[in-house]
Amino acid sequence: MVDASRPTTHKMRFVSEDRSTHMLRTDWDTAVPLAPEVEEALLSQALDLLPRAQGLLLSDYAKGALTPRIIRTLITAARSKNVPVVVDPKGADYGIYAGATLIIRRVRPSVLVKGGDYRPEEVVGRELVEAAGGELLLVDLVPGQSSTRIVEQSRRTRAQR
């Protein structure tokens, strides 16, 4: 479905020269509720397709396309047809998604652990963890042990079974 009043979202990512660090992302988009006639057309089309669906995924980016009416109507209709509903929500108020089969919550790790042979500025993901209130822990290396060695040993053991 196309809504001529809503431009396609454009995203631009700025990365380091070696592309190992994501520094910034800018988005050009619209975050306004759908016009009533567009909401009605989207809901009608989704309800028409629902009987053929094996599942319903509602990925809400808070841009206005998934209005409260659309969310509630689709979850209710899907559940009445035994169609599982998976929701990828934006925000913290999950009450509107009541009745969904599964709500995917974005995981924010509180601790990132790396070996002591790394310097903090070399650890990929450190900024994301710290921005979410987490911390980076650099642990001492144990001679003859590493996570890579443990994984390889586990693979060999599994392959012998």
Structural description of this entry:
The protein is α/β, with parallel strands linked by helices and 161 residues long. It folds into 2 domains: 10-103, no CATH class; 111-160, no CATH class. The chain is 29% helix and 20% strand. The protein contains 4 helices and 7 strands, in the order ββαβαβββαβα. It has helices spanning 36-49, 68-80, 126-131, 147-160, and strands at 10-15, 22-28, 56-59, 85-88, 102-103, 111-115, 135-139. The strands form 3 sheets. Strands 3-4-5 form a 3-stranded parallel beta sheet, with helices on one face. Strands 1-2 form a two-stranded antiparallel sheet. A two-stranded parallel sheet has the order 6-7. Helix 3 (126-131) links the parallel strand 6 and strand 7 (135-139). The longest helix has 14 residues, at 36-49. The N and C termini lie far apart (52 Å). The mean pLDDT is 83.
H/E element order: EEHEHEEEHEH
Strand content: 15-25%
Low-confidence segments: none
Global outline:
extended
Number of helices: 4
Span of the ends, CA to CA: 52 Å
Number of strands: 7
Helix content: 25-40%
What is the assembly state of the chains in this entry? single chain
Main pleated-sheet profile: 3 strands, parallel
Radius of gyration: 22 Å
Instruction: Decide which structural class fits the backbone.
Output: alpha/beta
Q: Reading side by side through the largest sheet, how are the strands ordered?
A: 3-4-5
Q: What is the typical, i.e. mean, pLDDT?
A: 83
Give the count of structural domains. Answer: 2
